[in-house]
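Tutorial handout. Part one gives the primary structure; part two gives the three-dimensional structure as tokens.
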Amino acid sequence: MKNFSEFVKANKAEIYALAKENTRYNEDGVAVISRDDTWFYEDEWDEYFKKLTAPVT
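Part two.
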């Protein structure tokens, strides 16, 4: 993981710029996923989220 950490430190500005360029923002400046984004309809995370938020028994 040390190499990845070094990579991020060395390229932080470029990584941030690319992420910002590929992010949509609403009128309030909040990052959002649009309804026409294919990720919006991915449901494989729903089951995982239910498990993470389920009460511990």
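Part three, for discussion. Strands lie at 24-25, 31-32. The chain is about 55% helix and 5% strand.
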